[in-house]
């Protein structure tokens, strides 16, 4: 929703997603969590490609 609003108003912006180191390192008995965080990373990369031309930066942080 925020991206759509920024694009319509022609405003730059920044979106920060919260991922996890589990997105790149497997954890035993955490299949769903690791998969979900890997999806967040993929979403972040795709959004960055799509929203970059609109001056909207998209990044993620991976706290421990």
TrEMBL record:
<keyword id="KW-0521">NADP</keyword>
<dbReference type="Pfam" id="PF13561">
    <property type="entry name" value="adh_short_C2"/>
</dbReference>
<comment type="similarity">
    <text>Belongs to the short-chain dehydrogenases/reductases (SDR) family.</text>
</comment>
<comment type="subunit">
    <text>Homotetramer.</text>
</comment>
<protein>
    <submittedName>
        <fullName>Uncharacterized protein</fullName>
    </submittedName>
</protein>
<dbReference type="InterPro" id="IPR051737">
    <property type="entry name" value="L-xylulose/Carbonyl_redctase"/>
</dbReference>
<keyword id="KW-0560">Oxidoreductase</keyword>
<dbReference type="GO" id="GO:0005997">
    <property type="term" value="P:xylulose metabolic process"/>
</dbReference>
<dbReference type="InterPro" id="IPR002347">
    <property type="entry name" value="SDR_fam"/>
</dbReference>
<dbReference type="InterPro" id="IPR020904">
    <property type="entry name" value="Sc_DH/Rdtase_CS"/>
</dbReference>
<dbReference type="GO" id="GO:0050038">
    <property type="term" value="F:L-xylulose reductase (NADPH) activity"/>
</dbReference>
<dbReference type="GO" id="GO:0004090">
    <property type="term" value="F:carbonyl reductase (NADPH) activity"/>
</dbReference>
<dbReference type="InterPro" id="IPR036291">
    <property type="entry name" value="NAD(P)-bd_dom_sf"/>
</dbReference>
<dbReference type="GO" id="GO:0006006">
    <property type="term" value="P:glucose metabolic process"/>
</dbReference>
């Amino acid at each position: 929703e925020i991206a759509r609003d920024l694009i319509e108003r022609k405003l730059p912006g920044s979106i920060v997603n919260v991922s996890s180191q589990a997105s790149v390192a497997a954890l035993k008995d955490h299949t769903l969590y690791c998969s979900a965080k890997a999806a967040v990373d993929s979403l972040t990369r795709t959004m960055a490609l799509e929203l970059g031309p609109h001056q909207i930066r998209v990044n993620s942080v991976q706290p421990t």
